[in-house]
Amino acid sequence: MQNLQSTNDLGSGKVRQISINEKIDVINIQKILNENLEVFKKIDKKLNDEYSNILINYLINNNKLNFPLSKHIELFISKNYKDAEKLYKYLLFRLKFYITGSQKVNIGYPPYLLLEPVSACNLRCPFCYQSDKSFTRKPFMGVMDFELFKKIIDDANDIGVGAITLASRGEPTMHKKFIDMLDYLNKKENIFEVKLNTNGSFLTNDMCHGIFKNNLTQIVISADHYIKEDYERLRKGSNFEKITKNVDMLFNIRKKYYPESSTEIRVSGIDNEKNLNREKFKEYWIKRSDHVSAGYPIERWDTYMNAEHPDINDPCEFLWDRMYVWFDGKTNPCDADYKSLLSFGNMSSNSIKEIWNGKIIENTRNMHVNGDRKKVNPCNKCGVTF
């Protein structure tokens, strides 16, 4: 009988996406790691990286990884096991991402960037800040200039940022140069994980081919139900049949034209009313995806009017493991602060490292680790614990 690890308890945030009845095949992962161990050792010697030393020594001594596994990581390993260098550098990125957040370590740059091509969205979901009418107007609405996008990506690749997500406050596929963005990202050698979050409304044939041609690591379709009436009530402005058809198109294009693709298709739902039948939800969407997950909503539909949480005072991992960049270059620690009270710089005029190591974010980090999260607005109104 195989040693299988449940994904139900993975992740540090208590409000999170949980895989529905998925198991991780630990035995197969260990087999892949063992088969590549000698090559990994050679790569480690070339890298001269202290975290690489930590990773390889742990692998040698324990025959497993020293960070939590998830279904997403398992799929990446199983689909990229033939490319040992890519796999090892990916594992090194995942270790850095884990250590920076869990141990509150600043390695000099964010291991993970979330970029916002567009801040607008075509839907008005009740659990999202897009339902805040004071947000869906200037100065918060806009489209990222393609030259600014290239500047950010070049900088991220040069300093070793391991992952990019195209998403944040708006619907990224509304950008007229969205496919060009994918093309540009695919040319970068040091960005191992490229993820897209989308509601699926604007997927086209060309866009689907662009996703697979450019080897996206993961495309996450935000879909919150399996019944038309409930879906369209929760995703106000959506068309259930159209989005199902678009996801089918995405799945079938991969099956027909890119059978060896390593791109994972995941359907991710928000259980807004905490009564979602997750078995039926998975049954509907797994036919057109690799992985289905669901989670509860985070209090960000009107963050600034939330009640304070004086009992929640643990430091937020996001201040150490990721950076959000809005359409205009403004940087932020999270999208719960969607009006950017905590912005710590702008990519239009500064580099990632300059912003990441600046006094503004450092002051916020110090307040969090010194037990003063409850004094930081709107961190004191965020219900996420770590």
Question: Strand fraction band?
Answer: 5-15%
Write down how many β-strands occur, each being a DSSP E stretch of 2 or more residues: 11
Q: Which structural class best describes the helix and strand composition?
A: alpha/beta
Rg to the nearest angstrom?
20 Å
Shape: globular
* SS field, number of helical segments: 13
The helix/strand order is EEEHHHHEHEHEHEHHEHEHEEHH
Indicate the percent of residues in helices.
25-40%
Largest sheet: number of strands, sense, barrel closure: 9 strands, mixed
Question: Could you list the spans in which at least 5 consecutive residues all have pLDDT below 50?
Answer: 1-14
Determine the N-to-C terminus distance.
34 Å
Give me the side-by-side strand order of the main sheet: 2-9-8-7-6-5-4-10-11
**What's the overall average pLDDT, rounded?**
92
Characterization of the model:
The protein is an alpha/beta fold and 386 residues long. 38% of the residues lie in helices and 11% in strands. The chain has helices at 26-47, 50-62, 71-79, 84-103, 146-159, 178-185, 205-213, 228-234, 240-257, 278-285, 318-321, 352-356, 359-369, and strands at 4-6, 18-19, 23-25, 112-115, 163-166, 193-198, 218-222, 264-270, 291-295, 323-325, 331-332. The chain has a 9-stranded mixed sheet with strand order 2-9-8-7-6-5-4-10-11, sandwiched between helices. α1 (26-47) packs antiparallel against α2 (50-62) and α6 packs parallel to α7. The longest helix has 22 residues, at 26-47. The radius of gyration is 20 Å and the shape is globular. The protein starts with a strand and ends in a 17-residue tail after the last helix.
